[in-house]
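Researcher: I'd like a structural prediction for the single chain below. Treat it as a standalone chain; there are no partners to consider.
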Amino acid sequence: MSLINTEVKPFKATAFKEGKFIDVTDADLRGKWSVVFFYPADFTFVCPTELEDLAENYETFQKLGVEIYSVSTDTHFSHKAWHDSSPAISKIKYTMVGDPTGTITRNFDVMIEEAGLADRGSFVIDPEGKIQIVEVTAGGIGRDAQELLRKIKAAQYVYSHPGEVCPAAWKEGAETLAPSLDLVGKI
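Model: Treating it as a single chain, here is the predicted structure.
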């Protein structure tokens, strides 16, 4: 079943953010745009490159009103240790959620059960708590923060402009479409 347009399921977890342990719940994902960014594990190979890429673009996400929550099945203690020991991870200012029970990972349907780890899943949640974008890639395929930003801008545009849609490769400021009978067969 597709998770698109479904509401985020309830959860509560402990996270590491800017030197502190904090509680995070599904309620934190409401009222603003959010990215829930699952990755397999701390102290690995592709994961730090993705998280560093997000960290280097975090200010741009913030300017769009988007909060980032990275999630793995590691604990918040592991996130702190990784943050303290890795030059790439030390750049992170966004929330690093620990999900050792796998509850959040299963809620988003990205748990690799036999490994107890998350797939590489990116979820964009609108201010109402509904999932608007889902991207899941194989373990060896890293994601790109710039492409995620492009998709978020499109989602935000469509959200605030009912009746309009963004065509392929749409970029902010480009022309959109207003689906209608007049367009059928003309594109």
